[in-house]
Amino acid sequence: MEPTPHAVPRETGWIEVIAGCMFSGKTEELIRRLRRAKIAKQKVVIFKPNIDTRYSTNSIVSHSEQSLPSILIKDVKEILDLVEDAQVIGIDEAQFFSSDLVNVCNQLADDGKRVIVAGLDMDYRGVPFEPMPQILSVAEYITKPLAICVECGNPADRTQRKTASAERVVVGAADVYEARCRKCHYIPTEEKH
Predict the structure, then answer these.
(1) Catalytic residue, candidates 28, 78, 84, 93
(2) What global pTM score does this model have?
(3) Which of 21, 87, 111, 170 is deepest in the core (most CB within 10 A)?
């Protein structure tokens, strides 16, 4: 059985990462953990990048419409000035932040905070999506939920883009993306097998 973090840091902090493809329940799991911290009367502050305004500008929102209030930020370094006396920090859509995410999370954990990060681990091509590989390498706890492939029903760990855009970042939901397994995933600019 995978070890799970304590509810409250005891003279130390740590980093938890929830990483996977779209529609795998990353934000749902982030919200679940943050709600439990709030129930335990811990001070929680949640952040998301200003590029992600799909469902809300002042909340993190899962595809299943669960939500929690959050702060929209442009630069991940802003978090250091906004956490104040928070014990638990949530960061959603971490793949949209710069590589400074690693230093910020390490500093928060070194300051005794529980840092919970959620984000895509691979882009639509199946390539690791920075800074997620780097934050995964320094995290104490890692959770990788799987989705269900919309083509065949197998466990899915890939994000299939349904449009031919070659841009790495195209913010969207079910209108642009779906979950696929390794067998059914393809890069949209390539001819489908």
Answers:
(1) 93
(2) 0.88
(3) 21
